[in-house]
Amino acid sequence: MAKGDGGVGAWTVVAHVLAVAATALVLIWCIHFRGGLALRSHNKQLIFNIHPVLMLIGPIVLGAEAILSYRSLIKISSSREVRKKAHLALHGVALAVGAVGIYAVFKYHAEADIPDLYSLHSWIGIATISLYALNWLAAFLTFFFPKASPDTRRSVVPWHALLGLLIFGLAIATALLGFLEKLTFLQAPPMHLVSRYGAEALLVNFTALIVLFLGGAVLLATANIDSTRYTAM
Ligand code: HEM
Ligand code: HEM
């Protein structure tokens, strides 16, 4: 659906529903199955639990809502400036929530005596959050304050949108790796804390699947399908 045509596309609605579902599922997992959340505790696992919850609510759920805000807020405000402020602010909150989530996992590692940045998840994760912060800053300077010239803004915006979707895709991939990694730790010998075939394993795998579908729905909601591009039929 074209932007600004007065309606909210079906994929945007699907993305909202999946975003709510993913938030509920990660909270059920970390609070009901994993014992709860705490930034300070003798039980270091509770410090870890902050990480998946905030990474999901931040760069993934609020990040998705920020990307969709140009389309989903069309009924609330037809002003592009208002929606631009919502986009900027939601991405800002997403980034701040993500930064606290990363702080929590570093704190957990420090207090549980676990080395930092040894896994594929952690490498892609640190790259993702850094690119998210850089993209936010570059876009703020270009589109908001002090603002580049109209010509520059026009030529930068497609790159901003493409890079933004790429970074969002990286956040989705990082989260999938994170769920898989944590589940593997919990299932590994000698502790076998979680059964391979039980309810908790199913819940974590299903949450990751919902996150993947959320990524797909955001991509489909923002895709501008242009059939005139294809000439060799
Ligand atoms: C956008 C989403 C995410 C980002 C950017 C991210 C980033 C990171 C980073 C940078 C670390 C390294 C911390 C250190 O070395 O001290 C880490 C650790 C970890 N994260 Fe995530 N994370 C995300 C989502 C998740 C999710 C959803 C889970 C699911 C449980 C998860 C599970 C873990 C685990 C188990 C560790 C500790 C082991 C390791 O360092 O690989 N992460 N994460
Ligand atoms: C990491 C943070 C950000 C990400 C991931 C991101 C991502 C995106 C995406 C995917 C789009 C395309 C949306 C669509 O097609 O409907 C977009 C559009 C846009 N973004 Fe961002 N963005 C970020 C931060 C910012 C900031 C801080 C500003 C500053 C004002 C900004 C300004 C814009 C503008 C002006 C558009 C064009 C909207 C239009 O005319 O359709 N973005 N962004």
Automatic annotation (TrEMBL):
- Which superkingdom, per the lineage? Eukaryota
Q: Where in the cell is it found?
A: Membrane
Return the Pfam families for the record: Cytochrom_B561
TM spans, by residue?
12-34, 46-68, 88-106, 118-145, 157-180, 200-223
UniProt-recorded Gene Ontology molecular function terms: metal ion binding; oxidoreductase activity
A GO cellular component annotation in the UniProt record:
membrane
InterPro entries the record matches: CYB561/CYBRD1-like, Cyt_b561/ferric_Rdtase_TM
Tell me the ranges covered by the Cytochrome b561 domain, including all copies.
14-223
Which cofactors does the annotated protein need, by name?
Answer: heme b
Membrane topology listed for this record: Multi-pass membrane protein
The name of this protein is Cytochrome b561 domain-containing protein
Q: Identify the species of origin.
A: Leersia perrieri
**Which lineage?**
Eukaryota, Viridiplantae, Streptophyta, Embryophyta, Tracheophyta
